Amino acid sequence: MTDLLALHGVTKRFGGVVATHDISMQVAHGSIVGMIGPNGSGKTTLFNAIVGYHPVDQGSIMFDGRDISRLCVPEIARLGLARTFQQTRVFSNMSCLRNLLVSVPHAREGLAAMCTRQAPEVSARARQMLRFVGLHDHQAQLAAELSFGQRKLLELSMALMSEPRLLLLDEPTAGVNPVMIESLIALLREINARLGVTLLVIEHNMRVISQLADYVYCLAHGELLAQGTPPQILGNREVIDAYLGGAQP
Ligand code: ADP
Ligand code: MG
Fold it and tell me: Which of 10, 11, 17, 36 most suits a substitution to test ligand 1, by most atoms within 8 Å of the C-beta?
């Protein structure tokens, strides 16, 4: 399988802090790749670098064979890259449907045009995506009225509006109750299998990683500590020590 995303020696510094150092990783077309690591190990920084939010200091980021490390956020989004945030970002005082309508990539139509014209095919896709994540009955409801887990689903459906080829998910199950975690895992699998979206997932929950990921990268202190299949990673002594302070997962 060829790589949809490939990082080569990516280093990002914030003043004197080296947030990520010399990170190389690959995400194959159609795969689900996990990224784990203790807090502060550089996971979100790497996401921000991939989507163009932080320019990298060294290294390159290739998306479908093209170097995107010098492109800006909208250019990268237009190529088919979307992300969700560690702290869910939705527009609380808008309806769920409207949240989706305004999250169509600014690049393609222009946000202002989107808001006024609301092309029928865009509304149709918005309804389809709300149904896909199970929020169809909530389309007219204000996002502020949703539960925490439902807001996560809404954010997910917003990210899908751009028909991404690669979706970066920053801790999608954090703070979500165990029952909803199960449906989230099933939904992410469907997004991968039915919609054909490749996934790169930051996740602390090892059970989720085991059920979801084909391959896992573990960061610690901004460095790549280990990589492998979920069983290899879960059985890796260094990972257990760095991640869990020596406690068995
Ligand atoms: P993780 O997502 O793995 O918890 P982060 O990528 O958020 O880790 O952080 C990695 C390191 O980079 C931390 O030391 C953090 O304080 C630092 N860092 C992250 N973003 C910034 C920023 N915008 N400015 C300065 N330092 C930052
Ligand atoms: Mg983070």
Answer: 17
